[in-house]
C-alpha cells in the first residue's frame, strides 16, 4: 500500500518562555496553529530497511532526518521487519521556525500508523513523537492548541478567525538551540497575554488576535539578524494587521483580513525577499490528512 500524508507548517501566535528546566530545556506556553503551507510525505512499503529521498537539497538524507528517525522509532518499537521508502516533497522552508522537520516526522508517524495497522491513538502518536522533537506532538494533531511544557501538554483551541497569513523567510536559517542559549531570562520584561489571545480566539475577534501576538524569543533573533526586524517593519508598512516572528525564527508572518491587502503585502515583500507565501490557517488534521 502507498500512502501520501500532508505535513503542514505551524506558526506561533504567542510564545512565552516560563523558565529553564534542570534538563536544559525550557518550559514554554504557546498558542500554535497549522497553516496551509505543507510538505507531502509519500510512503511506499519495501522489503526491508529505510530509504529516504527529498525534493530539497537542504534536508539531511541520513538518520538526522526527523522523518527517517520517525520510521526508525516505529520499526524498533513495534518490531516491524518490513521496509519503507520515504519521499519528502519539501515546500516548507528549512530551519525557519515553521517546524518543517517536526511536521515531516509527525506525518510519517501518522502514515505508518495507518500503513502498518498499529492502531495508535493521536495521544499515543504524540507521546511517541516527543522523543523526536518538542514540536512533534503538536504536529501530530495540528489545528490550533495551547502547548505547554516542552510542547507535549496540548489543549485544543478554536480555529482562529479566517484571515490570510503572509509568510516571509529571510535567506538564512536559525538554530533553535542557539536562540534558547542566547535567551537571558532576566532580560525578558514583557510576556504575551495568553488570556487575551484565548479571548480573541473564542470570540473570533481578528483585531484582538492581531493585538495579542507576542513571542519572547523574537528579541533574541532580531538582535542577531537585523534583516528579520527589517522584514517585520516592511510587512507592517505594506498593511499587515498584525506581525510577528514565528518560533525561534527567522520567518516573519503577517495576519491580514483582506485579500487585496494580502496581495499588496506579498508583492511589496517580493521586491527584496525571495521566499514569500500567502496561505490560510488550517483546521484540525484528523480528516483529510492522508491523501
Ligand atoms: C521554539 C519552537 C516553538 O514552536 O519552535 P521552532 O522555532 O524550532 O520551530 C519549538 O519549541 C522548538 O521545537 P523543536 O525545533 O522541535 O526543538 P527541539 O529539537 O526539541 O530542541 C532543540 C533545542 O532547543 C532547545 N529547546 C527547545 C525546546 C524547549 N522547550 N526548550 C529548549 O531549550 C534545546 O537546547 C534543544 O536541544
Ligand atoms: N525532514 C526535515 N525537514 C527539515 N529539516 C529537517 C528535517 N529533518 C531534520 N531536519 C533538520 O532540523 C533542523 C530544523 O529544521 P526545521 O524543522 O525545518 O526548522 P525549525 O525547527 O526552525 O522549525 C534543521 O537543522 C534541519 O537540518
UniProtKB/TrEMBL annotation:
One of its GO terms (molecular function) is 4-(cytidine 5'-diphospho)-2-C-methyl-D-erythritol kinase activity. Residues 197-273 form the GHMP kinase C-terminal domain. It catalyses: 4-CDP-2-C-methyl-D-erythritol + ATP = 4-CDP-2-C-methyl-D-erythritol 2-phosphate + ADP + H(+). Pathway: Isoprenoid biosynthesis; isopentenyl diphosphate biosynthesis via DXP pathway; isopentenyl diphosphate from 1-deoxy-D-xylulose 5-phosphate: step 3/6. Gene3D superfamilies: 3.30.230.10, GHMP kinase, C-terminal domain. Its EC number is 2.7.1.148. InterPro entries: GHMP_kinase_C_dom (IPR013750), GHMP_kinase_C_sf (IPR036554), GHMP_kinase_N_dom (IPR006204), IspE (IPR004424), Ribosomal_Su5_D2-typ_SF (IPR020568), Ribsml_uS5_D2-typ_fold_subgr (IPR014721). ATP binds at residues 93-103. It is an enzyme of class 2 (transferase). The keyword Cell inner membrane does not apply. HAMAP family: IspE. Catalyzes the phosphorylation of the position 2 hydroxy group of 4-diphosphocytidyl-2C-methyl-D-erythritol. Belongs to the GHMP kinase family. IspE subfamily. This is 4-diphosphocytidyl-2-C-methyl-D-erythritol kinase. The gene is ispE.
Amino acid at each position: 500500500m502507498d500512502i501520501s500524508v500532508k505535513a503542514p507548517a505551524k506558526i506561533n501566535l504567542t510564545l512565552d518562555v516560563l523558565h529553564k528546566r534542570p534538563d536544559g530545556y525550557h518550559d514554554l506556553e504557546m498558542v500554535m496553529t497549522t497553516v496551509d503551507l505543507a510538505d507531502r510525505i509519500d510512503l511506499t512499503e519495501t522489503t526491508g530497511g529505510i530509504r529516504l529521498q527529498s525534493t530539497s537539497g537542504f534536508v539531511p538524507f541520513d538518520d538526522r532526518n526527523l522523518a527517517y528517525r520517525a520510521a526508525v522509532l516505529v520499526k524498533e518499537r513495534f518490531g516491524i521487519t518490513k521496509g519503507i521508502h520515504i519521499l519528502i516533497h519539501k515546500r516548507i522552508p528549512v530551519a525557519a521556525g515553521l517546524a518543517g522537520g517536526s511536521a515531516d516526522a509527525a506525518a510519517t508517524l501518522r502514515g505508518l500508523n495507518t500503513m502498518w495497522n498499529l492502531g495508535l491513538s493521536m495521544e499515543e502518536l504524540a507521546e511517541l513523537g516527543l522523543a523526536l522533537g518538542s514540536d512533534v506532538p503538536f504536529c501530530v494533531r495540528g489545528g490550533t492548541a495551547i502547548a505547554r511544557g516542552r510542547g507535549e501538554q496540548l489543549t485544543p483551541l478554536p480555529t482562529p478567525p479566517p484571515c490570510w497569513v503572509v509568510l516571509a523567510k529571510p535567506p538564512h536559517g536559525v538554530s533553535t538551540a542557539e536562540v534558547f542559549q542566547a535567551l537571558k531570562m532576566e532580560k525578558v520584561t514583557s510576556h504575551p497575554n495568553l488570556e487575551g489571545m484565548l479571548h480573541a480566539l473564542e470570540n473570533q475577534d481578528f483585531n484582538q488576535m492581531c493585538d495579542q501576538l507576542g513571542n519572547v524569543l523574537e528579541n533574541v533573533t532580531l538582535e542577531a539578524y537585523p534583516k528579520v526586524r527589517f522584514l517585520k517593519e516592511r510587512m507592517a508598512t505594506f498593511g499587515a494587521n498584525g506581525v510577528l516572528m514565528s518560533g525561534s525564527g527567522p520567518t516573519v508572518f503577517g495576519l491580514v483580513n483582506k485579500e487585496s491587502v494580502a496581495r499588496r503585502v506579498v508583492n511589496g515583500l517580493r521586491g527584496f525577499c525571495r521566499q514569500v507565501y500567502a496561505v490560510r490557517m488550517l483546521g484540525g488534521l484528523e480528516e483529510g490528512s492522508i491523501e
